[in-house]
Write a structure and sequence with these properties.
mainly alpha; Ubiq_cyt_c_chap; Ubiqinol_cyt_c_chaperone_CPB3
Length: 178
């Protein structure tokens, strides 16, 4: 038992978590989102893209069992730890962090419900509308929303083609945007 927590298995699991999270972050930071598709290159804009890619990861592993379920939970925990760390780096006080985390968690789960519904219905217009509402809420019209919606649908198909066992062992790829 102690070897599980302190031994090789724990290090292997940490390496898998770090590899998967690095792939999710790299996909969320694709330059095309910010330079060509006008996603705001702000902490909130980056949160939106990271949330979107975390949603895609969670969407792929939903309904899986065994190690894939554990990996999905560990990655969502890692995501929220990263968000909390980012808030602290932005200078949010210890008193303000829990309140902001609660708000960001509510935002994340609200967005994932909207994205999931649109993907399940294969409704790119609803997906584009949800993305516009969340990514650029003050813009009103966002001509690049259909491009991002098409990317999300493509990424969902791309991830669906990857075996859950492969993902659970740390191998994950997202398509290139643009």
């Amino acid at each position: 038992m102690f070897q599980r927590f302190f031994g090789r298995e724990r290090h292997a699991n940490r390496a898998i978590t770090e590899a998967l999270y690095a792939q999710i972050v790299a996909a969320a930071r694709q330059a095309v989102f910010y330079s060509d598709w006008n996603v705001p290159d702000t902490p909130l804009g980056r949160f939106e893209m990271l949330s979107l890619h975390m949603f895609l990861f969670q969407h792929r592993l939903r309904g899986e069992s065994g190690a894939a379920t554990e990996v999905a939970q560990v990655l969502i925990d890692e995501f929220f730890l990263d968000v909390e760390h980012s808030l602290r780096e932005l200078g949010i006080s210890d008193v303000g962090v829990p309140k902001r985390m609660k708000k960001l968690a509510k935002m994340f789960y609200g967005r994932t419900a909207a994205y999931d519904d649109a993907l399940e219905r294969d409704d790119k217009e609803a997906l584009a509308a949800a993305l516009t509402r969340n990514v650029v809420p003050d813009a009103g019209e966002w001509p690049q929303a259909p491009l991002l919606a098409a990317y999300v649908a493509d990424a969902a198909r791309h991830l669906a083609a990857q075996p859950a066992e492969s993902i659970a062992s740390g191998t994950l790829t997202f398509p290139a945007a643009g």
